[in-house]
Design brief:
about 45% helix, elongated, five-stranded mixed β-sheet, about 400 residues, alpha+beta, six-stranded antiparallel β-sheet
């Protein structure tokens, strides 16, 4: 897991033994400044510091990378030990000691468990120090390895906690899915059973036609539920919905869906305003599904006796479809999860819904390079789907 410079100070601060490590480094070497630095291709950031020589660097402080020796260590991954700059054939003319005014320097690379370079454990002092002793190198190497190990364990712990969170959420959704599916399929199955029972008891032709019509509506609802389940499963397994893009008339798609829903809900008024002549490059079946889910949601939650208003228009190379219904305001905390699966705020289970309609509509919108948003006031709620007219 990559640790960026902005979070490095916190990552090192979380390692309890760091202050003791820096204190031990200074005591063993006699040096007055020790630090753990995060070194990237572009930055040198002090993560933890022990400063007894008033060097003036605090945790979070930065040095220009090119003025340090640490960026060379980042490339070579080899330790640099300089007991006395003035006597060192390589570094006596190096710009870094002259720039910062130190005579002794030691730095060991800190490498994460997966082999990635993090930074250095380093120390400096204005006076020469006896750093050639084996115990000094062993201590620095041991401490650098220990820091790298702790950083790796911290990153692994964070990843494990994130995985556990995802697994927990998946488990909750799985339980919700089973519970809701059992509840929602029970009602239409019971309706079909009741219809068959009535037809057996009273096989009157007129009554049979009415019962058959009601049963067909129930079957259609069950098919829609199964379709939503398959779409949800497909989206979770492969991460996307299969789409077949083709230039289509938005007005024709929306009008067809609105007419179908008007027939299915003769007691409700659906008002359609469509002013979009430019063809959409889209999957007509999926866009129709999106429209159906949005209008169906509005019919379910809109106030009885008030119209559902569907409008489509185009402007600035963008197509917009809005579906508006009168009714109480959707609370902000509900809006935040409205497009997640199985959310009660999206669709009521009592209405025969799995709570997947808005989630799938949002997935279709994203698959078309568009967006689905909601606005809600104390008197009305409006969903808006937007996509580019040239989107593919």
């Amino acid at each position: 897991m990559e640790i960026d410079p902005a979070s490095s100070v916190e990552a090192i601060r979380a390692i309890d033994v760091v202050p003791a490590i820096l204190d031990t480094v200074c005591r063993v070497t006699g040096m007055g400044f020790a630090a753990i630095a995060r070194v990237t291709e572009a930055r040198w950031v002090a993560c933890s510091v022990k400063d007894d020589i008033a060097f003036g660097l605090e945790p979070g402080g930065e040095l220009k990378l090119e003025t340090t020796i640490c960026h060379e260590i980042r490339d070579s991954r080899q330790a640099v030990v300089i007991p006395d700059v003035a006597r060192d054939a390589v570094y006596r003319s190096h710009h870094t000691p002259a720039h910062y005014g130190f005579r002794s320097y030691i730095s060991f690379p800190i490498v994460l468990r997966d082999g990635r370079f993090f930074g250095t454990l380093c120390a400096i002092d204005p006076e020469p120090r006896d750093l050639d002793r084996p115990e000094v190198g062993n201590i620095f190497r041991m401490f650098a390895d220990l820091i790298g190990f702790h950083l790796g364990m911290g990153a692994q712990l964070s990843e494990t906690q994130a995985d556990l969170g995802r697994e927990r959420q998946t488990g909750i959704q799985r339980e919700q899915f089973i519970a809701v599916l059992g509840h929602d399929l029970r009602n239409p199955l019971a309706a079909l059973e009741a219809g068959l029972s009535l037809m057996k008891r009273a096989p009157d032709q007129k009554r049979a036609e009415f019962i058959m019509s009601a049963m067909q509506a129930t079957i259609d609802r069950m098919n829609a539920m199964v379709g939503n389940i398959l779409d949800f499963a497909r989206g979770r397994l492969v991460g996307d919905l299969p789409l077949r893009f083709k230039a289509e008339s938005a007005e024709a798609i929306v009008t067809q869906i609105v007419n179908e829903l008007a027939i299915a809900h003769p007691d409700r008024e659906i008002v359609l305003h469509c002013d979009s002549a430019t063809p959409l490059m889209c999957d007509a079946q999926r866009i129709g599904q999106l429209v159906s889910n949005l209008v169906g949601n509005a019919l379910t939650h809109g106030e009885q006796g008030t119209p559902v208003v569907v409008a489509c228009r185009e402007s600035d190379d963008e197509f917009t479809l809005s579906v508006t219904n009168n009714g109480p305001e959707i609370p902000m905390q509900v809006r935040e999860t409205l497009f997640q699966p199985f959310e009660q705020g999206a669709e009521s289970h009592a209405s025969g819904s799995l709570g997947l309609g808005l989630y799938i509509a949002s997935t279709i919108a994203k698959a078309h390079g568009g967006s689905l948003t909601v606005q809600s006031s104390p008197t009305e709620t409006s969903f808006a789907f937007r996509m580019g007219l040239a989107a593919t």
